[in-house]
Amino acid sequence: MKIPIFPVVLFGGMVALLLINAVFIVPVNFNMPVQYFDVISDFSKFVVVFLYFIIGYQIERLDWTGKLFRSFILGAVIIGIIGLLVSWIWIPLLSDRMWYAGIRLNGWMNDPNYYAVVQCIALVTVLRIEEFKRLRKLLLIALLLLTIISSGSKTGFLTIAAVMMFFVWHEWLDQRLGMKHLLSFTFLLLIGLILTPPFLQNMSEVFDFIGQYIPSVQRIELLLSNFSSAISEDGSGRTEVWDLAVQLIKSSPLIGVSVGNYYHLGKRLHPDPNVAHNTFLQLFAEWGIPITCLLLIFLIFLILRKPKKSTDKRARAIQQALLIFSVSSMSVSFNNSRLFWLIIGIASA
Asked: Are the C-beta atoms of 56 and 344 separated by less than 8 Å?
């Protein structure tokens, strides 16, 4: 087993910086007591996700990533099928657990948005694996798309749109698509963007009909018809928590407010503070701008670097999984997500 020296050294430096900041600097600067319990709790999460980074690194070094992907697809499909079945045959305890508020599929997870992101990763993995026969692949794609739509996640819908464009770009880079195909896709995309507004004006009845069977579709209709309302109303409330995060970033831009202090400092600015619902804003606030920018540069490098072999579809699947997390991070906080750091570890090996 090979331990990545540089990430371990970097992690050690981060641990020292975060602890010093959380225990000595932030309490003095903001005239507040040390939040020992919350610091230990958040610090423990930080240690756990780093361990998942190491596990991901080892999985790729041992060439187990293919097995992991196949198991991941199997789990996503089984949970998706069970979730869809218990929406038609209502089983009180099971259905209540798998359907948030009775209308949004969330699998075994607490957050329908996070569930949609997981299903998006399974979807791009299916697209990249050639072992499946065409009919089986189409069925898997249809099933995973249905589970994403059933989650009612606007985040998931936007993520799928971004990843599909990235998928076409990758195919072109790997020379599986010619310039003619790329131009055709771009033309169809532009036509779609032009026709979408008038299309939606005349499709409200269709959405209402589908909504009778899949109520979560109405959330996606709102996203397409009124984007600003979609992110600020109907339970999203993103703008308020983003504004709170920005205020905390301004209060300590260089070193952040560190672990364990976000909620307590946020309470001074808002009566009901919550996480930023944006991974990067959350990290900017907790880690500071310089360190978070280094992480962003590293993620961009992992997503854009060219695989050693243009035929390496597994490498492309890993990059697209990272892209999914990066795009969906704009409206969900994944800084403590074990899957997120596991994939970063795999991509880093």
From this structure: yes
pLDDT of residue 235: 47
Contact 240, 270 (CB under 8 A): yes
pLDDT at 73: 93
Cα 314 from Cα 170, distance rounded (Å)? 12
- Tokens matching residue 123: 């979807």
Taking only the tens place, the pLDDT of each residue in 249-307 is 999 999 999 999 999 999 888 887 888 889 999 999 999 999 999 999 999 999 888 77
For residue 124, count other CB atoms closer than 10 A to its CB: 24
3-state secondary structure at position 104 = strand
Q: Are 255 and 288 in contact (CB under 8 A)?
A: yes
Do residues 124 and 167 touch, judged by C-beta distance below 8 A? Answer: yes
Lookup: tokens for 117: 């992101």
The helix, strand and coil proportions of the chain, stated in percent and rounded to the nearest 5, come to 75, 0, 25
Report pTM. 0.83
Task: Indicate left, alpha or beta for 76 from its phi (over 0: left) and psi (-120 to 50: alpha).
Answer: alpha
d(CA 169, CA 198) in angstroms, rounded, equals 28
Ordered DSSP codes for 260-273: T-HHHHHHHH-SS-
Among 79-83, 216-220, 287-291, the minimum mean pLDDT is found in 216-220
- Amino acid residing at 173: L
